[in-house]
Automatic annotation (TrEMBL):
One of its GO terms (molecular function) is homoserine dehydrogenase activity. Its cofactor is a metal cation. Keywords: Amino-acid biosynthesis, Methionine biosynthesis, NADP, Oxidoreductase, Threonine biosynthesis. It comes from Ardenticatena maritima. InterPro entries: Bifunc_Aspkin/hSer_DH, HDH_cat, HDH_CS, HDH_short, NAD(P)-bd_dom_sf. NADP(+) binds at residues 10-15. This is Homoserine dehydrogenase. It catalyses: L-homoserine + NADP(+) = L-aspartate 4-semialdehyde + NADPH + H(+); L-homoserine + NAD(+) = L-aspartate 4-semialdehyde + NADH + H(+). L-homoserine binds at residue 214. NADPH binds at residue 132. The active site is at residue 229.
Length: 363
């Protein structure tokens, strides 16, 4: 049996779900002749590190206790087995051995985690990312990450096979002409509600009530999360783009960005008339509105598009994501991937799938 050390940054919702899934798939791991063992967990300012023999790592009972500890809103540093830490690179240095995998399921800024990734590369460790920010910042960090074993499926479609599909197309010599996607469950819900006759403000309020938006819905309505996903797709295609080269349409007027959250909610219905007019204009031509990321050699655009009602994007409803690949081989009928594109369990499953893949190549 080969024991693969896991150094995990982040014990939020996705991080806790990932720990549970790792513990629940011991039998599947054994079929491949390996076992994942947690040697370190870190949150924003604390860590718990294994002191046991390398084939044991953090004990199962301790991991389960840490999951409950974090679910209760406590810090790892405050746990009896935890300590305060502010140096993720040092954690990588002490917590692994050859074949280790560093997993980032945080939303940390790129500069926070970059030194740890540099150390992981120095040591030959694998890296798995659910965090989009390291992949959408400086291209030098992108190059560093790609200088060794790396997987990042969950950065674009949670558990959907988006990156792996794109990589297979490229690796088998297909020519990818265009990637289009509805990459936000929140904005998909809003667009579907507009199609059903709801006002824009009512749709956003309903999405917020159901927990689909961030506490400040502008974090979703800005389109920046979709833009990051689109940039990752573009860079995976080999396009050396940066965030400032993307065209991104927010779903609120520019002056709304400076409003307090309460002011934003109070003035949200000011957007209704314009959105209703756009819905009506699209419907008159047999189209519906969707919030779409469009990636090709010509560049990347993110925003509202009118698409045919009977097209894959037009038929999409609710919070599902959909990504279509138009290629030399899939020209007349694009290759489509569709399903849940958010949620802690499916995102964690996407990360775990990446870990299984890296376990085959990290020795």
């Amino acid at each position: 049996m080969r024991y693969i050390p896991i150094i995990q940054f982040g014990v939020g919702g996705v991080g806790r779900a990932l720990i549970r899934q790792v513990l629940a798939t011991a039998e599947q791991q054994a079929r491949y002749g390996f076992q994942f063992v947690y040697t370190a967990l870190a949150d924003s300012d604390g860590a718990v590190v294994a002191t046991r023999h390398e084939d044991e790592g953090l004990a199962r009972a301790l991991l389960e206790d840490l999951v409950e500890w974090k679910a209760a809103g406590k810090r790892l540093a405050e746990h009896p087995e935890g300590y305060w830490q502010g140096d993720l690179a040092a954690l990588v240095d002490v917590a692994g051995w050859p074949g280790a995998i560093v997993v980032d399921v945080t939303a940390a800024e790129a500069e926070t985690v970059a030194p740890a990734f540099q150390r992981a590369r120095d040591l030959g460790y694998g890296i798995v990312l659910a965090n989009k920010k390291p992949l959408t910042g400086d291209l030098r960090l992108w190059d560093l990450l790609h200088a060794g074993p790396l997987r990042y499926e969950s950065t674009v479609g949670a558990g959907l096979p988006v990156i792996s599909t794109l990589r297979t197309l490229l690796d088998t010599g297909d020519s990818v002409k265009q990637v289009q996607g509805a990459l936000s469950g929140t904005l998909g819900f809003v667009m579907s509600a507009l199609e059903a006759g709801q006002s824009f403000s009512a749709a956003v309020r309903e999405a917020h009530r159901l927990g689909y938006t961030e506490p400040d819905p502008r974090d979703d309505l800005s389109g920046m999360d979709v833009a990051r996903k689109a940039l990752i797709l573009a860079r995976t295609l080999g396009l050396p783009l940066s965030m400032d080269t993307l065209t991104v349409e927010p779903l609120y007027p520019p002056d709304f960005a400076a409003l307090s959250r309460d002011e934003f909610w109070a003035r949200l219905d000011e957007v209704d008339a314009e959105m209703q007019a756009r819905v009506a204009s699209a419907a008159a031509e047999g189209n519906v509105l969707r919030y779409v990321a469009d990636v090709s050699e010509a560049g990347v655009s993110v925003g509202v598009q009118a698409v045919p009602r009977e097209s894959p994007l037009g038929a999409l409803r609710g919070t599902d994501n959909l990504i279509s690949f138009t290629t030399a081989r899939y020209a007349a009928r694009p290759l489509v991937v569709q399903g849940a594109g958010a949620g802690v369990d499916v995102t964690a499953a996407g990360v775990l799938g990446d870990m299984f893949q890296l376990a085959q190549v990290c020795r």
